[in-house]
Amino acid sequence: MDEPANPSIGLTEVTVALEITQREMNGIYLLALRGRLALGDESTGFRSTVDNLLAAGATKIVVNLEHVNYVDSAGLGALIEAHRKIKAGGAQLKLSNLGPNFKRALELARLLPIFETFPTEAAALAGF
Prior knowledge:
- By secondary structure, this protein is of the alpha/beta class.
- It has helices at residues 41-55, 73-88, 100-108, 121-126, and strands spanning 18-25, 28-37, 60-71, 92-96, 116-118.
- Strand 1 and strand 2 (28-37) form a beta hairpin.
- It is globular and about 30 Å long.
- It starts with 17 loop residues before the first strand and ends with a helix.
């Protein structure tokens, strides 16, 4: 059996269940998450995105959670780690558009008080 000529064939079929859209407005970095914030590539990808922003000198970050349809303990852990790293670096993190289920998960884990949360992305931007 011959090896395929293009070893990347098949890799395009791998889907990460968390899509992160990043944009910047007046020095504030907005991360819009869509999908699952869960154990695996999803939470790892979120951590990497935050690490890259901090390495690039970002000091104001808003995470829009409007389209996160599932979060598990690893996803909450990734958010806690992001919060810790951002604060340790002298930067600020704000969460926006928490759906009722996401908000409830933070409440159950007694994590809601550690985050600055806003009903909309615009309100989070105005909070800086």
